[in-house]
Amino acid sequence: MSTPKWHDGTIVAFDTETTSVEPTTARIVTAAVVYLTPGERPRPIRYLIDPQVEIPTEAAAVHGWTNDRLEQTIGRPGFAQRTLNGVVSTIAAEAAVFEIAAHLAATIGRDQAVVVHNAPYDLTLLEHECGRHDIAPLSARPRGLAGVVDPMVIEKQYDPFRKICLKAPGCRRDEGHHECGGCRGGKVRCGGCGATDKKLESLCTHYGVRHGGAHDAAADAIASARLLRKLLTAWPQMASWRLPTLHEHQVTWRREQMDGLRSFFDKAGTAHDGCCGVWPVHTSACAGAHRVEVAA
Fold first, then answer.
1. Distance CA 143, CA 98 (A)
2. Packing angle of the helix pair 243-268, 151-158 (nearest 10 deg)
3. What is the spatial distance between Cα 11 and Cα 218, in angstroms, rounded to a whole number?
4. Does the pLDDT value for residue 72 go beyond 90?
5. Closest CA to 229 of 1, 4, 9
6. Residue scoring higher pLDDT (175 or 96)
7. CATH superfamily assigned to domain 6-151+213-295
8. Is the pLDDT of residue 157 over 80?
9. Total Cβ atoms within 10 A of residue 132
10. Is 123 left (phi over 0), alpha (psi -120 to 50) or beta?
11. Where are the domains of the chain?
12. Contact yes or no for 120/145 (Cβ under 8 A)
């Protein structure tokens, strides 16, 4: 009897919406841990957390949560709301962080995949949130950070030269202005999705993945898991690997991707933040390097 593949069973997807793009100082505003089992509906656990700091206008414009709205919704400073199976519970903010870390640690302990799009941002953020609340971070637990699957890293590895800007006259990529029509398909042809970046929403458009709504933590987490399924189908060699093997490949891929990006910037004379290639969690020496990925 053949051993079931890791992607044939339950996987857990994780996503956050926060106060800033800097994971060492950002605070979680919303988060979702979503259990996904083939043949069953996704089971999301949603968290709305008072970050206990001012939410910048730029961040609120992305996810829609201001300090005033949080205060009106949660009703108590320093607390959080957990929504599970339609039941809303009020818990302490540190309890919410504890639960999120516990869910992911338990998933790792069961040898199940933790799916996180742009893992170095969300997992670095969680590490620092745990530290603020005196909670053992995932990296310090017996199994550490194992079995992480990052669709962003995988997609870049398997289709690295897919054009998202055809450099037509009038395209100003640094300003996000395009007149080229954007992506017209790569190794997995999309028929012309028109995406001009490789953010989660654009990758879902390219691969034909249903997305319930960008910048909603649960919707983003579910979309990242659906995207992963598409990638596994597109590149079956990857689907044949054991989960620890895929994890280790991503460590190498991310390093090589960021080395290439750094070299490109250096040759072009473009300023950059070092393009840290450490995955799935940024080290203290390169914690700001994720900004390239957020903006890409």
1. 17
2. 70
3. 14
4. yes
5. 9
6. 96
7. Ribonuclease H-like superfamily/Ribonuclease H (3.30.420.10)
8. yes
9. 12
10. alpha
11. 6-151+213-295
12. no
